[in-house]
Design goal:
heterodimer, A: about 240 residues, alpha/beta, Rossmann fold, six-stranded mixed sheet, four-stranded antiparallel sheet, 9 helices, B: about 270 residues, mainly alpha, 2 strands, binds adenosine-5'-triphosphate, binds magnesium ion
C-alpha cells in the first residue's frame, strides 16, 4: 500500500510568466484526507493539475509510489482520479455512459466489468438513470456529479478533487460529503466549502499566492481566525 | 487553458512595432496594390519592392528567416498560376511531354508566371510583417479608421476571439481524455482499447466540440443581448493620428506611388 502524495519543492510558471506555484512541499500519508484551501488565484487548481502530469513544473512529485514522470504517466493516471474544477473540462463524450465508461475501457477491462463499474459509479453519485443522457445538456450540478463518476469508475487509489461541492444542491452536497467520508482513499480536495472541511478533513493546507502558508490539523487552524482572515478564509 | 500558438503577433519594441497601426495597415494595403499593379516583367521594380519589404523586416527585428519561412505558406497558392506558362500564346520556349500530351511553354507565359510568383511572394511578406508587429485589436482599430464597414470589423473581431475559445475547448477535451487514459497494474489487460473504439471516441469528441462551439455561440449571443446589444457595433472614437505618423504615411505612399508610376512608364 503506497497511495501517498509526495510533493517536494514544486515551482511552476505559466507560459505568460505568471509564477503560480513557488516551492510547494507537502506529504500526504496513505489513506489521509486533506483539504486544500486558499483564496481565488492561490494556485490550488494549478497544483492539482500537476498530480497526474497534465502540467509539469520544477520539483519532484511522487503519487502512489510512482514519480510523476513521462514514462510513468499511464500508470499514474490509472491510480489518480482527478476531477477538474470545471466539469466542462472533464466530460468529452457524447453520452454520460460513454464518458463514465471511458477510463475502464481504456484500461482494457472486459465489457461486463465496464458495465458494472459504470453502474456502480453512477449509483454512488445518484445519477443511475442518466446513462443515455447527453453530457453537455445536463445542469451544472448534474455535470459535476457525472464528472466525479467518471473517475470513480476507474477505481483510483488517490482521489484529487477540485472544488467538488461548488454548484451542488444541499442534498447532492450532503451525499457527496458522505461519499468522501466513506471512500477509503487518499484524498486531496481543493475547496472553498469550510463547513465540509471541518466535517470530514482532519488536515488542512492553506495556500496563498502560490505558497503553502499553513499546514496542520483542521481544528487547530480553524481556531486561528487571524490566519484565516489573512488568507481570505472564514471560520465556519 | 489558453492557446498562444495561433497568434502571429510577436511582441517587440522595434520602430515597426511602434508605428501607428493605421499607418501600417494603409501602407501594407498600398504596397500590395502597388505590387499587383506593377506590369509583368518589370524586374527592376520587383527588386526594389523586395528590397523595401526586406528592409522593413530588418527594421522590425522579426528575423528575416522567420518571415521567409512563414511566406513559404503562400507557395502552394502560387502554383495555381502555373497553367499560364503553357496557355499564353507566344514564342515556344520548351516542351514538356507528359505521356501522350505535349505542353508548350511560351516565353510570355513564363515571364507572366514568374512575375505573379514574385508579386505574391513580396505581398505575402508585407502582410506577415503587418500581422507579426501589430496586435489584433489594433488591426481592427485600423480597419475602422479606414472605414471598413463596422459590421465586418466586428465579425473579424468576434472570429478572432472565438477562434481561441474554440481551440481552448479542443485542448480541454484532449486534456480530459488524457487525464483518464490510465494503464492498469492488473496483469493481462491491454490498455488503449481497440482501434474502432478509439476512432469512435475521437469522433464523439469532434462532435462534442462542434456542439459546444455552437451552443457557446448561442450563450454568448444571449449575454450580448442581455447587455443591450442591438446588432450595431459601437466603439470609442479614434485618437487623432500624430504629426510624425502623417509624415511617415505621406512619404511612404509617395515612394510607392513613384515606383508604380516609374514601372508603368517604362514597362507597360
Ligand atoms: N493558463 C493560465 N495562464 C496564465 N496564468 C494562469 C493560467 N491559469 C491560471 N493562471 C494564474 O495562476 C494563478 C493560480 O491559478 P489557479 O487556477 O491555480 O487558482 P485557484 O487557487 O485554483 O483559484 P480558484 O479558487 O479561483 O479556483 C492565478 O493567478 C491565475 O490567474
Ligand atoms: Mg481553482
Amino acid at each position: 500500500m503506497h497511495h501517498s502524495i509526495e510533493i517536494d519543492h514544486l515551482s511552476f510558471s505559466y507560459p505568460d510568466g505568471h509564477a503560480a506555484l513557488r516551492q510547494v512541499t507537502m506529504h500526504i500519508q496513505p489513506g489521509e484526507k486533506v483539504a486544500l484551501v486558499g483564496p481565488n488565484g492561490a494556485g490550488k487548481s494549478t497544483l492539482i493539475l500537476h498530480l497526474n502530469g497534465i502540467l509539469t513544473g520544477q520539483g519532484e512529485i511522487r503519487v502512489a509510489g510512482l514519480p510523476v514522470t513521462k514514462p510513468n504517466l499511464g500508470k499514474v493516471r490509472a491510480r489518480v482520479g482527478l476531477v477538474f474544477q470545471n466539469p466542462d473540462d472533464q466530460l468529452f463524450s457524447p453520452t454520460v455512459y460513454e464518458d463514465v465508461a471511458f477510463g475502464p475501457l481504456y484500461q482494457g477491462f472486459p465489457p461486463a466489468e465496464v458495465r458494472q463499474r459504470v453502474a456502480e459509479a453512477l449509483t454512488v453519485v445518484n445519477m443511475r438513470n442518466y446513462e443515455k443522457r447527453i453530457s453537455h445538456h445536463l445542469s451544472a450540478g448534474e455535470k459535476k456529479r457525472i464528472a466525479i463518476a467518471t473517475v470513480l469508475s476507474m477505481k483510483p487509489e488517490v482521489l484529487v478533487l477540485d472544488e467538488p461541492t461548488a454548484g451542488l444542491d444541499p442534498r447532492a452536497r450532503r451525499s457527496l460529503i458522505q461519499l468522501l467520508q466513506e471512500l477509503p482513499l487518499t484524498m486531496l480536495v481543493s475547496t472553498h466549502d469550510m463547513h465540509m472541511v471541518k466535517e470530514i478533513f482532519p488536515r488542512m493546507i492553506i495556500m496563498d499566492e502560490g505558497r503553502i502558508v499553513a499546514d496542520g490539523p483542521t481544528d487547530l487552524l480553524m481556531q486561528n481566525e487571524e490566519l484565516l482572515c489573512a488568507h481570505g478564509l472564514e471560520k465556519p | 487553458m489558453h492557446v498562444h500558438f495561433l497568434d502571429p503577433y510577436r511582441p517587440g519594441q522595434s520602430p515597426i512595432h511602434k508605428l501607428d497601426s493605421r499607418v501600417k495597415f494603409v501602407l501594407t494595403l498600398a504596397f500590395i496594390f502597388a505590387a499587383a499593379l506593377t506590369p509583368t516583367g518589370a524586374w527592376a521594380i520587383y527588386i526594389l519592392l523586395l528590397a523595401l519589404v526586406l528592409g522593413v523586416e530588418v527594421l522590425s527585428e522579426l528575423r528575416v528567416g522567420y518571415v521567409l519561412k512563414r511566406a513559404a505558406l503562400a507557395l502552394p497558392f502560387i502554383l495555381a498560376a502555373l497553367p499560364i506558362v503553357f496557355t499564353m500564346p507566344g514564342e515556344p520556349r520548351f516542351i514538356l511531354s507528359i505521356g501522350p500530351w505535349a505542353l508548350t511553354a511560351s516565353l510570355p507565359g513564363l515571364e507572366r508566371f514568374i512575375s505573379i510568383a514574385i508579386k505574391s511572394w513580396v505581398s505575402v511578406q508585407a502582410a506577415i510583417v503587418l500581422a507579426s508587429t501589430t496586435e489584433f485589436p489594433d488591426l481592427l482599430m485600423a480597419m475602422r479608421a479606414v472605414r471598413v464597414p463596422r459590421l465586418l470589423v466586428s465579425i473579424f473581431g468576434l472570429m478572432w476571439r472565438y477562434l481561441f475559445v474554440l481551440a481552448d475547448e479542443a485542448i480541454r477535451l484532449m486534456r480530459a481524455r488524457l487525464s483518464r487514459s490510465g494503464v492498469s497494474d492488473q496483469a493481462g489487460l491491454k490498455p488503449g482499447g481497440s482501434l474502432a473504439w478509439r476512432a469512435r471516441v475521437t469522433g464523439g469528441m469532434a462532435g462534442s466540440l462542434f456542439v459546444r462551439a455552437f451552443e457557446r455561440s448561442d450563450r454568448i449571443y444571449m449575454a450580448m443581448l442581455a447587455r443591450g446589444y442591438d446588432g450595431e457595433a459601437r466603439s470609442e472614437p479614434l485618437q487623432a493620428l500624430s504629426g510624425a505618423s502623417w509624415v511617415v504615411l505621406a512619404l511612404s505612399l509617395f515612394t510607392l506611388l513613384a515606383l508604380l508610376v516609374f514601372a508603368l512608364l517604362f514597362w507597360a
